[in-house]
Amino acid sequence: MKSETESDHVCLIRVKVGQKRANVMVPFEEHARFQTNIANLLRVYLDGLKKRDKSETQNKTRSRRVA
């Protein structure tokens, strides 16, 4: 029987975008580098997101409380 060591541990990452799917098995030794690379990708491609207007959400909750 094979003994478990840190090199045997992997993390399975699954992604689905529309109908396309992908998965990656990241070894324990590479998890920090993988996490850094994913964070960089998210910063590059998700920088155009708009922040929600907080006044709209506050007005909706206030009107629900009054009713």
From TrEMBL:
The keyword Ribonucleoprotein applies. Transmembrane segments: none annotated. SUPFAM superfamilies: Signal recognition particle alu RNA binding heterodimer, SRP9/14 (SSF54762). It comes from the Eukaryota. Keywords: Cytoplasm, Ribonucleoprotein, RNA-binding, Signal recognition particle. It is found in: Cytoplasm. GO terms for molecular function: 7S RNA binding; endoplasmic reticulum signal peptide binding. Gene3D superfamilies: Signal recognition particle alu RNA binding heterodimer, srp9/1 (3.30.720.10). One of its GO terms (cellular component) is signal recognition particle, endoplasmic reticulum targeting. One of its GO terms (biological process) is SRP-dependent cotranslational protein targeting to membrane. The keyword Cytoplasm applies. Component of the signal recognition particle (SRP) complex, a ribonucleoprotein complex that mediates the cotranslational targeting of secretory and membrane proteins to the endoplasmic reticulum (ER). SRP9 together with SRP14 and the Alu portion of the SRP RNA, constitutes the elongation arrest domain of SRP. The complex of SRP9 and SRP14 is required for SRP RNA binding. Heterodimer with SRP9; binds RNA as heterodimer. Component of a signal recognition particle (SRP) complex that consists of a 7SL RNA molecule of 300 nucleotides and six protein subunits: SRP72, SRP68, SRP54, SRP19, SRP14 and SRP9. Belongs to the SRP14 family. This is Signal recognition particle 14 kDa protein. It comes from Beta vulgaris subsp. vulgaris.
